[in-house]
């Protein structure tokens, strides 16, 4: 939705800055969907599931750290956006790495930590998608 709203707003000059916000929104929704999908595969062992969760969370954690660096460099971003786009995803993916590790060691708390991680990421990302949609719709040509 945010991408379609931004179609009239985005240009070559603005695309670099917009990637700081649009790409993470896509990544976080994809990560939640991927975790749910791999959780539905009945042939996974505790080990294979834990490895996939830990590996995926680690990759997303690194990407989120890069986004945090971009967000912190910008002087125009307010504190709420710094927290929601920068810090909150890092907390979520760190919890995902923890959940993967808990699966690997056979902890009974692993599913609870993973569920909390997914709810956290989904909640933060819904907020970010809404923020992005409002931002883009306010800057669309012809909007008042």
Q: How would you characterize this protein structure?
A:
The protein has 144 residues and is mostly helical. It has one domain. Helix content is 81%, strand content 0%. It has five helices and no strands. The protein starts with a helix and ends in a 6-residue tail after the last helix.
Can you give me a brief rundown of this structure?
The chain has 144 residues and is an all-alpha fold.
Q: Helix/strand-derived class?
A: mainly alpha
Q: Overall pLDDT, averaged? A: 86
- Total domains, how many? 1
Low-confidence stretches: none
What is the makeup of the main sheet?
Answer: none
Helicity level: over 70%
State the order of secondary-structure elements, H for helix, E for strand: HHHHH
Q: C-alpha Rg, in Å?
A: 17 Å
Number of strands: 0
End-to-end Cα distance: 20 Å
Roughly what fraction of the amino acids lie in strands? under 5%
Query: How would you sum up the global shape?
Result: elongated
* H/I helix tally: 5
